[in-house]
Amino acid sequence: MNFVAYQIAWFACVLGGAHQLPWVGVAVTAVAVAIHLVLVPAPGRDALLILTVAAIGALWDGLLVGLGILEYPSGVVLPWLAPVWIIAMWAGFATTLHVSLRWLLGRWRLATLFGALGGPLAYYAGMRLGAVNFPDPVVALAVLAGGWSILMPLACWIAIKLDFDPPGLGDEVATGP
């Protein structure tokens, strides 16, 4: 359910951003995040995770826009910050860290690889749907791969630090591949 909710929110954000309706994605993601927070056993913990990851994402994507690596056609409220629908997408992504992406926690090399491949692929899909432009696609994809190879393990680390009672994680958090 968590993965499906995230995918629905992702498409709402991307398609809303692509069609000059950025607040549609924000609204859909807000509903998905609210449902997530109602269903999880520790909503305060997950709310803090969502806010932290969304803030990191807002700054990261804002930096990429500021450097001219990415261009967004809609949803930019402040020139140094990511568009609102991208921030919402980061919030939606954070809901997966204790649920559908929990298997990735503590598996640092896998998280690095997953980020280096999955991050750029998601942006590429967004580009193909018209939500983001790459002035130089090779540079954009390389920077995204490098950034996400750090951001994914960072998000996992934050999720672990905020998981005060990590059931099922055992020793693999500290020693996983």
UniProtKB/TrEMBL annotation:
Listed transmembrane segments: 20-40, 47-70, 82-101, 108-126, 138-160
InterPro entries, alphabetized: DUF2878
Keyword rRNA-binding: no
UniProt keyword annotations, A-Z: Membrane, Transmembrane, Transmembrane helix
Coiled coil location: none
Recorded superkingdom: Bacteria
Protein name: DUF2878 domain-containing protein
